[in-house]
Amino acid sequence: MLVVLLAFISCNKEDETTRAINVEVWGYNIGDAELETSIDTTIYRNFTTLPNKPVTFSKIYTFHASKKESALKIKDKTSGKDVFQQQLNLSSGKLELFFPFVYINGNELEIEIPAADSSTNKLSFYIHYPKSSDALDIFLQNETGQITYIAKNVKPGTWIHADYMPEEGFQDKNKSYNLYFTKTGTIDSWYFEDSELISKVGEAGLLLPKNVEKGLVRTYFVTPGNLQLDVIRLFKRP
Q1: N or C, which end of the chain has less CB nearby within 10 Å?
Q2: CA 151/CA 125 separation, integer angstroms
């Protein structure tokens, strides 16, 4: 998307009255609401979010150079209520704006983002699974079966923040490991729906720290989907 945006700017560099910015909203919509996203007066119906589905809005927004701000809104189509609103600063010079948004049964989830720590990485998870209040463990497993834990005895319905440094066997940026969620104290009692398929996910798209990276902050919303586990990043791509 950034490449497309830069190409747009390059093609329009002689037109000093036109500007463009990429706007992203990532998160999840839990409940019965159907959500519709708009910027200013434009409604993006192709990005309507159905109930119990990820929010994945990404759009290049073009505007006149004299325009200093605009309003990003997410509306519940059924009730007509605005459930999320953010003023976009169009004069900041940024090419991308990113906003996390999780909507659970009519309420916006407060997203806790820990401060960065240059000596380690911060991983945060919110587990949404009303079917159980039991604790769970979160770990990575590589192709040899080696396990490294991210967090243990995690309670669903709350934020968990963990320090994480990739150990040997989990540092290769060219490899993808499996991220597992199991009943606490076990490695094969599957937490979601008693199903291995719905209790694990490949971490390739999650941008977990690799090699000797430090100072990263990664925040995720986790909930079982219809046929797979949904682990949604709530942070801007690096």
Answers
A1: C
A2: 10
> DSSP class of residue 199?
G
Distance CA 172, CA 46 (A): 37
- What's the pLDDT at 17? 86
What is the H or E stretch that residue 72 is in?
strand 69-76
Return the SS3 of 205.
Answer: helix
For the chain, list residues with pLDDT below 70.
Answer: 1-15
Q: Is 86 helix (H, G, I), strand (E, B) or coil?
A: strand
Q: What is the pLDDT of residues 15-65, one digit of tens each?
A: 578 899 999 999 999 999 999 999 999 999 999 999 999 999 999 999 999
CA–CA separation, 42 and 34 (whole Å):
17
Q: What spatial distance separates the first Cα and last Cα of the chain, rounded to whole Å?
A: 13
pTM over 0.85: yes
> What per-residue string of b and e applies to 101-130 under the rule 16 or more CB within 10 Å gives b?
bbbbeeeebebeeeeeeeeebbbbbbbbbe
Question: What residues form DSSP beta bridges with 159?
Answer: 126
